[in-house]
Design brief:
Length: about 550
């Protein structure tokens, strides 16, 4: 009976175990498989090939993606007797020197399981690695192809790529940083390919087969509005001008005043976008683009807006006359002309041409019955022309070129833009906004011509034979916040002007930032820099004549263009 009872107990236990096993094997099969897969499977994300960036011709490559190899080593798999030779070979291939060479040698000898020797090595270095592996001088090393952003067109300064501040760069994770690369990240990058793959406990693939869960979409190309040839000339001219002035930088932007297309967008010094890591370590301020991100006091180029306010309100005309006394007492201080001399009674057009501060101040005060109301009218004019900073004084270079475009294109405030086509589709410019009549625009265009023809120094430094030219200078001292006063030998030099065969066709804003020296002995004036850039523009670009361009309320379009 005891044996029977014992057998019965074993039978019951067996049935229970079989039942429990059936529960796990059948009832919990899917859940267990899911748990197993979760321990082995990983989502593999592979970035899509990034789209390229071209200039307005569609033939010059400004940015593209190339394949470069990552050089790795597994020191733990290198025999002890060979580690010295392998370390020497790797040091020679990557060109490591000093402490870098010593660190690489120590890393090879420490026996770690994995070591990144160098990222993005050159094709020549990759060939040396392959030759070493084939000949047996290298063991425990390998190459992994890696997509790398390349900027193949050289810039106007040494060690720079073309339009670096405008384009920005792409980091090691494939993310655009600054400029066009960041703004158009979604279009350029596309979406990544996602798949499931199985790996063992130490990360080795179990099978080469992968289950694709999302094929992704490739990145799309961009075609910009800038002309690569003109961009290069601008960068070269700005390098020379900035160096002559010992300036922190020199920048210029050229725009089609009728469409808002940016034809050149240049700052010197630039940088090599593919070598952004070095720039980040040495001078990260170069990433910041002063044309669009840096506000500054532009000086007398703003006299045109005081003139516009007076003409629009009827406070005065271009022939109205004001007394330029050379010095004027105002609430909180005094206003001086640059030469501290009185020129007497002058017309508005000559006050603007000769850039008389006292005369312009009297014009501004004429806008209203008192200072407060006159200031409000002037500020409303600034806002209508696209300005609106809390200071009411500082502006960006791009805002200047946009506002001046409305003065010369018939009165429409167009939207500056740098992308012409995306993924093969033509991009329509944003609708413009009429801010003045065509007649008022013609008045201001004529005033800009008057400036460069009436003042002898401007005529010598600005006019171009056979071209229609007009513009306005601006010179502003730079505020020293530590001393609480303006510096006497540091200036922002500006010029905004147009050039064309039979009317305004290209608008150019020049800025020499933080120029050092005496204002009476400048090595080169901003209007002279403009003339060289304007001549470059007319020699390089093939744009319709001004007479072939038509403006419409609410939009600005070049005739004959889609």
């Amino acid at each position: 009976m005891r044996l029977v009872a014992l057998i019965a107990i074993f039978c019951l236990l067996s049935v229970a175990l079989i039942g429990r096993l059936a529960y796990w094997q059948l009832g919990q099969r899917d859940r267990l498989l899911g748990l197993a897969r979760s321990q082995l499977e990983r989502t593999v994300i592979e970035p899509s090939e990034r789209g390229s960036i071209y200039d307005r011709t569609g033939t010059v490559v400004l940015a593209t993606t190339v394949s470069r190899d990552l050089l790795w080593a597994t020191p733990s798999e290198i025999p002890d007797a060979r580690r010295g030779n392998v370390a020497d070979a790797l040091i020679g291939i990557v060109g490591a020197k000093g402490s870098d060479a010593e660190q690489l040698r120590a890393s090879v000898f420490d026996g770690r399981p994995y070591l990144v020797v160098a990222r993005e090595i050159t094709p020549a270095q990759s060939e040396l690695v392959r030759a070493g592996l084939h000949g047996g001088s290298l063991v425990g090393v390998g190459l992994d192809p890696t997509p790398v952003r390349s900027f193949p067109t050289a810039g106007g300064g040494p060690g720079t790529s073309l339009a670096s501040q405008l384009l920005g760069f792409v980091d090691s994770a494939g993310n655009g940083r600054y400029g066009v690369e960041q703004r158009w990240q979604a279009v350029l990058a596309g979406t990544p390919r996602r798949s499931l793959a199985q790996f063992d406990a130490i990360g080795r693939p179990i099978s080469a087969t992968q289950q694709v869960t999302d094929p992704g979409t490739p990145g799309a190309d961009l075609q910009l509005t800038i002309d690569a040839s003109l961009q290069l000339k601008f960068e070269q001219e700005l390098l020379a001008s900035g160096t002559a002035h010992q300036a922190a930088f020199a920048s210029a932007v050229a725009m089609d005043p009728y469409t808002g297309e940016i034809l050149a967008w240049a700052t010197s010094p630039g940088y090599e976008a593919a070598d952004y890591r070095t720039v980040a370590d040495s001078d990260p301020n170069r990433f910041s683009d002063p044309i669009v991100s840096q506000v500054y006091e532009p000086g007398s180029v703003f006299k045109m807006f005081t003139t516009l306010a007076g003409l629009e309100t009827g406070a005065f005309t271009l022939k109205s006359r004001f007394n330029d006394t050379g010095e004027l007492a105002v609430a909180g201080g005094r206003i001086f002309d640059a030469d501290h001399k009185a020129r007497g009674v002058m017309s508005v057009e000559d006050i603007v041409a000769f850039s008389r501060n006292v005369g312009a101040a009297r014009m501004a005060m004429k806008l209203g019955p008192d200072i407060r109301s006159a200031a409000a009218i002037l500020y409303e004019t600034w806002q209508a022309m696209g300005f609106g900073r809390s200071t009411g004084v500082a502006v960006t270079q791009l805002q200047l070129v946009q506002a001046y475009a409305a003065m010369v294109n018939g009165g429409v405030l167009v939207t500056p833009h740098v992308v012409r086509m995306a993924a093969g589709d033509q991009l329509e410019p944003a609708p413009g906004r009429r801010v003045m009549s065509d007649a008022r625009s013609s008045q201001l265009t004529a005033l800009l011509r008057h400036v460069v023809t009436t003042v002898p120094s401007y005529a010598r430094g600005t006019l171009i034979a056979g071209e229609d030219v007009g513009g306005k200078t601006g010179t502003a001292q730079i505020w020293d916040s530590a001393a609480g006063q303006y510096m006497s030998d540091h200036f922002n030099l500006s010029f905004v002007g147009f050039v064309g065969k039979d009317g305004p066709r290209v608008l150019i804003a020049v800025r020499i930032g933080d120029a050092v020296g005496s204002i009476s002995a400048l090595p080169v004036n901003s209007h002279e820099v403009f003339r060289r850039l304007a001549q470059d523009a007319m020699d390089t670009l093939d744009l319709p004549a001004a007479s072939e361009v038509a403006l419409e309320d609410g939009a600005a379009q070049a005739a004959g263009r889609p």
